[in-house]
Each structure stands twice: as structure tokens, then as C-alpha cells.
């Protein structure tokens, strides 16, 4: 099983600042990688797939990069609605696996 | 618009069974694989099962293999998850989610999710 490790567990950021979230895979997943956002009591929402392609209606302030084992989600200027938990996921091999999440909170 | 609506959750005792359903609309159901995922209270996301668009192939997480069975009815645009021999550790919100690749041969990412249904396994 491919283990996905996210860091940090919690990120404290002020509105308007940049946030950088990381995810590492235990083996190469090529670009078969996605990011999700989840707000309290809501279902997750797809942000990024293919490591860097924004999903439908996702604002341009969200960007993804990386390939192989190291991936980054950058939120260029945090808005109030961006404070949430973010999960990474690999789909290179079964079982599909998620990272443990990074909570982005208001500083 | 794409919609997925889960139902069938509830409270059951360990060892009992439960069947979840996922009703879909707004897309060509038989062109997409569908996943079940879950989230234990206060925990992260876990993929549970996947069935390909044609219903011919399915995959399971090791934690549920042999106990859970995924199925789909392409004539009714619905997906089901039969859960047997339930354990306390199966307690979670269960989500159905559409696979992101039309006609894909395997599992990929999850582009649309339902709102989830809560399953509680407790004596």
C-alpha cells in the first residue's frame, strides 16, 4: 500500500497570506495525484487532479505542483472561505490512499 | 447538475448487516465508475470500494474485503454497498463519489461526492 504523508498537520496563516501544503508518497505515484478541500460537516471537494490541473470552478489562487513522491498545494492569497482541511490522494495503484490531512486555520 | 445522494445509514450492533444506497442524477451513470469512501468521526478519509462503469470489475480496501459488496444498477442509476459482519471500527460517514475519468478502466480521483450517510456500529 502506498502511504501518503502530509505536512504540516496544522498550518496557521493570516488572511491574504500564502499557504504551502506538502504531501509525500512512500513510492512514486507519477502524476496520479489529487488534492481535496473539506470544510466542517461537508463532503470533500476536488481541487486538483493530475498533480496540477485545477478542477471545474476552482479559483486560480489554488495551484498544485510536483510528481513522483513530492507534491505541493499552494494557496496564493488565503481567503476566509479557504480555512479548511486539505487532503491529498494517490490513484497510481490500488488501494487508493489518502494523506492524513492538513488543517489550515486562521492565525 | 451532478448529484449523488446516499441513504441507508443507521445504528446497528456488531456483527449485523446494513445496505447503503447511492442515487445519482445529472450525468450518464453507465459511463462512470463509482466509489464508496468513509470517514470515521474526527478522522481522515478512507477509500472503501470501487465498481467500474460496466459493473464487471470491483476493488475493495483490505479492511472490508470479504465483508462488503459493492453493486450497481445501471438501469436505475444507483449504487449499493452491502455491509456484513459490521465492526465498531466501521463506524463512519459513508460517501459515494463519482470517479473523475469517463469510461476509465480503473479508479482515479473523486470529482463529485454525496453528502454522506452515518453508520454507527455499537452494542
Q: Secondary-structure map with pairings?
A:
The complex is a heterodimer of chains A (about 110) and B (about 120).
Chain A: E1 4-7, E2 10-13, E3 19-25, E4 33-38, E5 45-49, E6 53-54, E7 62-67, E8 70-75, E9 85-90, E10 97-98, E11 102-106
Parallel strand pairs in A: 2-11
Antiparallel strand pairs in A: 1-3, 3-8, 4-5, 4-9, 5-6, 7-8, 9-10, 9-11
Chain B: E1 3-7, E2 10-12, E3 18-25, E4 34-39, E5 45-51, E6 58-60, E7 68-73, E8 78-83, E9 92-99, E10 110-113, E11 117-121
Parallel strand pairs in B: 2-11
Antiparallel strand pairs in B: 1-3, 3-8, 4-5, 4-9, 5-6, 7-8, 9-10, 9-11
In percent terms, what proportion of residues of chain A is strand?
Answer: over 45%
Distance between the termini of chain A: 35 Å
Unreliable residue runs of chain B: none
Largest sheet of chain B: 7 strands, mixed
- Shape assignment of chain B: globular
Number of helices of chain A: 0
Question: Fraction of residues of chain A in helices?
Answer: under 10%
Q: Can you write the helix and strand succession of chain B as a string?
A: EEEEEEEEEEE
Radius of gyration of chain A: 13 Å
State the helicity of chain B in percent bands: under 10%
SSE run of chain A: EEEEEEEEEEE
Q: Which parts of chain A are unreliable, with pLDDT below 50 for 5 consecutive residues or more? A: none
Tertiary shape of chain A:
globular
Mean of all residue-level pLDDT scores of chain A:
97
Distance between the first and last residues' Cα of chain B = 40 Å
Number of DSSP strand runs of chain A = 11
Which structural class is indicated by helix and strand composition of chain B? mainly beta
| Protein chains sharing the most extensive interface | A-B, 24 and 22 residues
The description of the largest β-sheet of chain A is: 7 strands, mixed
Residue-averaged pLDDT of chain B, rounded?
A: 96
